[in-house]
Write a structure and sequence with these properties.
298 residues; mainly beta; four-stranded antiparallel β-sheet
């Protein structure tokens, strides 16, 4: 904040003619005694007179590390010790990529992508977890993620091939099928919103192995599908859900803005892909007031 963290006496740069710029611009960092974490100051060159501002190199990031802030000293007040561990299969044939806990029935639901299963574990005695059942997900595709609330299980299911649209499969607490709806390609993470009226998926849309050999700007969606986020409205009740209850949002509005996005520091990795293909949502978190979903674009 100008005035409390830093100040400058003049925000106008005067660059002499026939020179390649200046080497010093005085910004005074205010050294108070308050313990603050690292802050960032972004200095941008704005309106120019009798000169041209570069389309890329027109700003500077300045990191301010507070000299009054120190890391706390370890006290060993909190200690962790291993209670037990649980394996859902022989090594090499199993995985536990995502684990969801339902406190209403004290069960763990494990996304076992290598085994192509949903594993259901009795967790009522944490000292001795017991495998209750393994539900094959092969009829739907393969499992990437799982979430659960009050006996309702939602699975993020990747199709075969993985670049086709995926689905969300709903099961009851015992693993019995309830319903299935279509979402974007390769749903990699799934979550409820804060009041459990919606389910959201981060649809990664990873390209296939054939991607690296391409040079065309018209990449087939079954080679590089769009990254997207799907929102499933549960208000109709899970048994009555259809694809009309699913809204899938993508990034097509940003196509053609690659230069502007790169100038903001956003990585567009492959020039042959459009922005909506290059964006790959990985994770979603919901704001505490339940009005926004923040999506990590890996």
């Amino acid at each position: 904040t100008s005035g409390s963290d830093f100040n400058w006496t003049n925000d106008t740069l005067t660059i002499p003619a026939l020179t390649n710029g200046i080497t010093n611009f005085p910004i005074n960092i205010i050294d108070d005694t308050e313990q603050e974490r690292t802050e960032t100051l972004i200095v941008k060159i704005g309106a120019a007179v009798n000169t041209t501002v570069s389309a890329t190199d027109y700003y500077q990031l300045i990191y301010i590390k507070d000299n009054d802030y120190y890391a706390p000293i370890a006290t060993n007040e909190a200690k962790l010790s291993l209670l037990t561990s649980f394996s859902n299969g022989a090594s090499g044939t199993n995985s536990a990529e995502i684990v969801a806990h339902d406190p209403t029935n004290q069960r763990l639901y494990i996304a076992n992508s290598i085994g192509a299963e949903l594993d259901i574990v009795d967790f009522s005695n944490p000292n001795a977890p017991v495998l209750l059942n393994s539900i094959s997900v092969t009829p739907y595709g393969n499992i990437n993620s799982v979430t659960v609330h009050d006996g309702l299980i939602a699975l993020a299911i990747e199709s075969v091939p993985a670049q086709a649209n995926g689905s969300v499969v709903f099961l009851d607490g015992n693993g019995n099928f309830l319903n299935q709806v279509t979402v974007g390609a390769m749903p990699d993470m799934i979550t409820f919103n804060k009041d459990y009226t919606k389910v959201l998926t981060a649809n990664e849309g990873e390209p296939s192995a054939a991607y690296s050999a391409l040079a065309s700007n018209n990449i087939d969606p079954l080679i590089d599908p769009l990254g997207s986020v799907s929102i499933i409205d549960l208000s109709a009740g899970v048994p009555a859900l259809t694809n009309s209850n699913v809204t899938t949002l993508d990034f097509t509005a940003y196509n053609g803005q690659e230069t502007s996005l790169k100038n903001q520091g956003i990585r567009i990795l492959y020039s042959a892909a459009s922005v909506d293909q290059d964006m790959e949502p990985e994770y979603i978190t919901i704001s505490d007031d339940n009005t926004k979903a923040f999506v990590g674009i890996q």
